[in-house]
Input
Amino acid sequence: MSANLSSSSPALSDYELDDRYVKEEGRVFLTGTQALVRIPLMQKLRDERAGLKTAGFISGYRGSPLAIFDQELWKIKSTLETANIEFVPAVNEELAAKAVLGSQQVETDPSREVDGVFGIWYGKGPGVDRAGDALKHGNAYGSSPTGGVLVIAGDDHGSVSSSMPHQSDVAFMTFFMPILNPANVAEYLSFGEYGYALSRYSGMWVGFKAATETVESGMSVTLEKPREFAIPDFEIPNAGLHYRWPDFPGPQIEERLEAKKHAVLAFAEANPIDRHIYDTPDATYGIVTTGKAHLDLMEALRLLGIGEKEARDIGVDIYKIGMVWPLAKKSSLEFVRGKKEVLVVEENAAL
Output
């Protein structure tokens, strides 16, 4: 059946495909891959508004579900060049991680041309394992306070193109690396912004999960105004938290990692990324979720006819975790306190 459009029908706003990367407000349509590409462009714009002269550097190795990430970057090569963002695909995942580590050294170079470089490493889940030593060293030596690093891991839960299902969280934990787990494409943008702010403050590289079901999906996204991050109430050690030169191997690196972890927790307390969905006082039962599992839970409750009103009536509250490690202690303990029972809905390797 065809629809008749009269002259009184509301006109659609002008929309170009390039808007997904250049538009600063309103709505755009993004796939998960395109949202990942937009993250560094947003960071560049944010830095310009803050009076920082920064550059971007992206390196990694393709693999499903990030198999077309590099193709999307190549498509907008001129846009990246205008934003002073360089994309250099690597021969393998380890070399990419080492190149990203080099991007965090710029601030220590007296002949530098920019204030800092924000970096992105990307690879599929098994690539995280393969590059483990390089990523672990990168995180240990740290990020630049005007740079920061996101480590994007494509997790193939369904083993669609891998020899076995993969979950990068456990590997990230062994690297002592914070882990962000966005639930949908829209959260890619806000979690990317959060990840860079967290990396710059704490000196940590920040893990960023891109599960197949999310990164290969698409949705219409309302572009939010840049978030203002509060300065945590945290005493930074005299030795600092970030990359410095020279920095020789030794126990001081492990000591600094522990200090970085406390800085991450302080940042999360000052700038929460976890959410109390209903925030029901005196709820008897609690459900804790993260990432795609949160949307799965909400859909299951919908099919059962349980919305916010019904959940409140039966004493159920939901806590959505944005940073799965390290866990924001104060907020999570406040949620479970007084609950008769708490159900955790997450991936197979329980965190």
Q: What stands out?
A: Residues 24-270 form a domain with the Rossmann fold fold (CATH 3.40.50.970). The radius of gyration is 21 Å. The first strand starts at residue 26 and ends at 31.
